[in-house]
Structures are given as structure tokens and as C-alpha cells.
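Note to self: keep these together.
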Amino acid sequence: MEKNKNRRTFEFYKKNGKRETDTGEHKETKRGKRTGGTLRKNTLLCVGRAILWIMLIFFFVRGVIVTFRPDTLTEAQQVISDFRKELVTEKKLNNEVLSFAQNFVYEYLTYTAGEEKDYKERLKQYITTTSNVSDTEIYKGAQKAVYVQAYRMDQLDKEHFDVYVLAEVQYEYYREQEATQESAETRMKVPVLSRDGEMVVDGLPMFVNDNTFMEDYQIQEYSGQAADEQTAAGAGMAVTSFLKAYYEQDETVIDYYLSQDADRSKFIGLDGRYTFDRMQSVRCYQEESMIVCIAEYKISDVVNGAKRWQKVRLNVVRGSDGKYYIQSMSARTTM
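Structure:
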């Protein structure tokens, strides 16, 4: 009993009216519970703050990466732009190399006896000082390249090219004290070096037999399911009327015979430069909703009256009004 005298006693009433005693020990127990709850709350708060900071850093870094790294669309557009620039540059270089070789061949095949100094002077702009390209022995008469055309090119590496040039040369010389003229065709392969925008013939041009003609090729005539008689007659009349307008009339008349979907830019007429002479034949074939017509006919040159054969393929459609209209036209009449 003595031990309990110094212990402070707190009395309080519950809601039910009963009195209970809260000793100091009980109070300390409750304080301990509150302290534990506070620690748990502080821990959760720290974890939440850490997660928040991690998220903020993540979004910040992601934003920086997106800002400084172009998106897929931008990269694709850049690739396309670079490709176009490279294509233009390559095409320009090819044209320059072809023109350089072509001009060289013209000078190389044009000379006159007794004018060797002039000949070498003209070739200086194409060859190096150590080259013997201009050491041509001119025995008699003269020759001149009247037609020169660089028609193809082999690129050996980044700087070296072999250019093939066709030339027609007119010769003038004396045979048995009589002036004679004759022409001959020749082909040459010209080695060209291109570096930093400058070019030079870096070897002796070679005379070659570079025949690219396809001797064994056989034209395969167009064939298919023939259109019925009524369709062939209607489409054939439309084709004949259109061709007369195409050679002899202006665009307003030509446009009358074209379908709504036809590309008008591909039907620029000749406005009377030639006249339609006569139709030889029109063969019509049915391809689903399209009618293919192969027309063979003659035209006349208004300058000298010369008549020439023409053969074209015309795609024809039938309009909602029952009339036939031209959809497209091509010089290729094969399969």
C-alpha cells in the first residue's frame, strides 16, 4: 500500500458513466504508441518524397533527351533530303563528265593538215602536259567531227570514268589530184579523271566497236480478247477522230475526246505541224472496263509532204453517256 501512495491517480469517466483510473504507467504506454505511429508516418513520408523525386528526375531526363534528339519523322525527312542532294550532285557530275568527254572527242577528231600547232593548242584544255594524246601524225587533207554524242559511261571508282562516245567524221582529201569527201562513223572510249570539280583525260582514247544494237530482238505484238463488234466500232471511231484532232487541232478540240481522268499534260497536240493522212487499221481488245486500241496510220509533214507511218496504243473508256473517250496514249504497242 505504501508503494502506491506516491503514484498519481487520474480518474475519468467513460461514456457509460463508469469511472476508471488512469495511472502513470498506462499514460506512458499510450505515449509510446503515439511515438511509434509518428515514426511510421515519417518513414512513409520519406519514401513518398523519394518516389516523387525519382519521378521528377525521370521526366526531366526524358524531356532533355526528347529535346536534343530529333524524332523519327525529322530523321526520315533528313534522310530523304540528304538522298536528294546526293542524287542531284551525282547527276550533275555525270552530266559534266559526259559533256567533257564529248567535247574532247570533237576536238580530237577535228584537224587540218599543216595546222598541227593549232590542234595541240585546242587539246591542252583536256589533257596533261605529260600526255601524248595530241601527237597525231596528220598526213593529208582534213577531217571534222560533224556529230558527236557521249551515250554511256562506266564509273570505275569515285574518280575514274570510262565514257563511250559516238562520232560521225567527215573526211576531205585528194585522191588522184581530185578533191574527195566521205563520212564514216566511229566509237571511242575516253578515260576521264574527275577530282574536286576538275577533269582531265588521263589516258589515250581507245577506238572501240561498241555495238549496243539488239539484233535478235523480235517485237511481240499486242494480243488479247478482242472487243465485240459494236464496242470495236464505237472505240475505233473515237480513236480516229481523236488522232485527227491531235495532229491538226488546238487543245480545246483535243480535250473534247479525253476522259475526265486523263492527264491533259500528256496530250499536247501538234497544232497542224503534221496532218493526219489516213487510218490503216484499228484493233480493239477488251480488258475488264478498259478497251485497248492499237492504231496504225500515216501522217504527212506539212513542210515537204513526206508521209510517215505511226503506230500507237490508246486506252479507251466508255462514259456514262455511252460515248467513248481516250484515257491514255503510248508509243509502246508491244505486250
